[in-house]
Design a protein that fits this description.
Layout (H helix, E strand, L loop, with lengths): L4 E6 L10 H9 L2 E4 L16 E4 L11 H13 L3 E6 L9 H10 L4 E4 L4 H8 L13 E5 L13 H6 L3 E5 L5 H10 L7 E6 L7 E6 L3 H4 L7 E5 L5 H7 L7
Parallel strand pairs: 1-4, 1-5, 2-3, 2-4, 6-7
Antiparallel strand pairs: 7-10, 8-9, 8-10
Length: 251
């Protein structure tokens, strides 16, 4: 039996057209696809009719496949001689646990390669008309996980340093914890008038952009559900200008 392989493919921010050429080729050649709920569903149309598609979603308060089980499936299918694609949204090495999967394969002596994806931390703000940097405005950006709130024992973030950094702050996985995050930034000295925006379902037909300030964005975006990305910083003011120039209605 020929040895199988694993390709860890980043699917980009939602629109299958934003996947890389290499990512599409891997999907087309795959015998097995292990797919996350944020992976572009349209990309599955590229798969062979006989390819096995396995849903390994990790939905908040919903279907959940443990990471250890995903690692086992990658190794099991590859050891059976199959070409395996692990397809997820964004880039698997940005809060995507891609390195855990890479290590699981290498430790099992399974050939594995990484096909990076367009990270949602930069692409989704761009799709909402927000640059994460802009000449004369800001010279850097910081990407953080909002999975746990400030003060949680598992949080390693220094919100005082973030508030003083002078960079654009991009929050992933922070829908539920946004009130605590913005409060921590304000408590640590961030100007309450600092522009902020939440972009929900970036790259999808129902993309939504909510604008405000760091003081009120959590209230303004209270009804927004995941997936969504929050941008805090002067560049977030571009969201309103971009929205004013939209020619196609966004539902």
């Amino acid at each position: 039996m020929l040895p199988g392989t694993v390709a860890l493919v980043g699917g980009g921010p939602g629109d299958a057209g934003l996947m890389t050429v290499a990512g599409r080729a891997a999907v087309e050649q795959a015998d097995v696809l292990l797919v996350d709920h944020l992976a572009p569903k349209e990309a599955l149309a590229w798969a062979r009719p006989d390819a096995l598609v396995v849903d390994v979603a990790k939905l908040p308060r919903g279907a959940f496949t443990p990471q250890e089980r995903i690692n086992d499936l990658l190794v099991e299918h590859a050891r059976s001689g199959r070409r395996v694609v692990r397809l997820k949204g964004g880039d698997g090495f940005v809060f995507g646990r891609g390195m855990e999967e890479f290590l699981a394969c290498t430790e099992a002596a399974v050939p594995v390669r990484v096909i990076p994806g367009v990270t949602s931390s930069v692409a989704v703000p761009a799709l909402g008309g927000i640059p994460v940097t802009h000449r004369g405005v800001v010279q850097g950006f910081s990407v953080i996980s909002g999975h746990v709130p400030p003060g949680h024992p598992a949080s390693t973030l220094d919100y005082g340093a973030l508030a003083r950094s002078g960079t654009t702050l991009i929050v992933l996985m922070g829908v539920a914890t946004l009130p605590e995050i913005t409060e921590a930034l304000l408590r640590n000295g961030l100007d309450p008038a600092t522009p902020a925006a939440v972009i929900a379902r970036g790259g999808h037909p129902d993309q939504q952009v909510v604008s405000g300030s760091v003081a009120d964005i959590a209230v303004r975006a209270a009804q927004v559900g995941p997936p969504a990305i929050t941008v805090i910083g002067e560049v977030a003011s571009f969201a309103a200008a971009a929205d004013a120039n939209v020619t196609e209605e966004v539902i």
